[in-house]
Hints:
Blueprint: E1 2-9, H1 16-25, E2 32-40, H2 46-56, E3 62-67, H3 73-81, E4 88-91, H4 103-113, E5 117-121, H5 132-149, E6 161-164, H6 165-169, H7 180-190, E7 195-199, H8 215-230
Parallel strand pairs: 1-2, 1-4, 2-3, 5-7
Antiparallel strand pairs: 4-6, 5-6
Helix pairs in contact: 5-8, 7-8
Amino acid sequence: MKLSVIIPVYNEKETIETILRRVLEVKMEEMGKEVIVVDDGSRDGTVEILQRIAKEWAPPNLKIYFHSQNQGKGAAIGTALTHVSGDIVIIQDADLEYHPEEYPLIVLPILKYGADVVYGTRFLGVHRAFLFWHYLGNKFLTFVTNLLFDSMLSDMEVGYKAFRIEVIKNIRLNAKGFDFEPEITAKILKRRLKLYEVPISYSGRDYAEGKKITWRDGFTAIWTLLKYRFKE
């Protein structure tokens, strides 16, 4: 068994080297691991850091790819998926909000209980308590998701998602930006795949610290959920 960790990156010069070292240090019992980074047209010095890493210390299981222009998180994930060779895929944001040390927890329902997909949930585990309006928006989007697809998710927009490779490879994804999250969720729920949630730790950051998602993305998420409720 092999775990493929996908890391979409955009303007994360302050965190990219730290998160890569943490991801690479995670030991997975009886599982190999590959890490696939896709820089999505960063303009803050992230590209230069990644080029240095590739030249100076990147191990063989770390692969780094570059978009010449910024296309969005979904586009970076799509590029990474063309290079994965593992049996399970985890999406890891390039900031320090999520903790790679919890990979064994996230893949456990796949390995032990036959899950097709696993979502972390930020609101049941240890988490930083702040950004009320962001929390409220997330809860509303999760409510809309559950209403449309007769589900009981607690955190639709969570960044930590794990998939069996045959699941993620067989879902056609159109999203280029943050609408990746509602699109993949809608298509998973519509297919009635076995989706589990596990509580994860979350060290959320605010906009001054580099958070990128905004209220505009919330409207896009609602439209995406409605669209894929009634079409493929």
